[in-house]
Amino acid sequence: MRAALLLVALLAAAPVVGQPSHAQDSYMTGTWFGRGQPDDALSMYIDRMHADGSWRGEYRACLRGRPLDQVQTGRWTLEGDRLLLHIETVDGISAPRTDVYRMLAHSDRSQKYIALPSGFAYTPQRVEDGAKMPPCDLIS
Fold this sequence. Notes:
Elements lengths: L1 H12 L16 E8 L2 E10 L4 E10 L2 E14 L2 E9 L2 E14 L4 E6 L4 E2 L2 E3 L13
Antiparallel strand pairs: 1-2, 1-9, 2-3, 3-4, 4-5, 5-6, 6-7, 7-8
């Protein structure tokens, strides 16, 4: 009887294999601000990573002091050191794809990861959940 109770307790405590556990990946959840994209060093982004696996990416490029904004939504997962952003929409229009990144370092305040296969490095910093994108005149 004791062995059966122990087995039940162990099974209840074990994570479900094959399903991402976003609660365990709590270092990813939150709001992250970064600068730079492969074609535009002055661009900015805010990634809002939710514990339920949903994700919203806000991107801003500045052209002559004017913002060019884009919003992507979808889901995120971690597989070992790989972050997968499963994009579902771009500016509200269905545009499914998956972007893959390799996590190099992370803390409660910052991350470093590279896009695969390009190798472009991103270094976002954690910001308040209500953070807004800075205006273009601050960087252009």
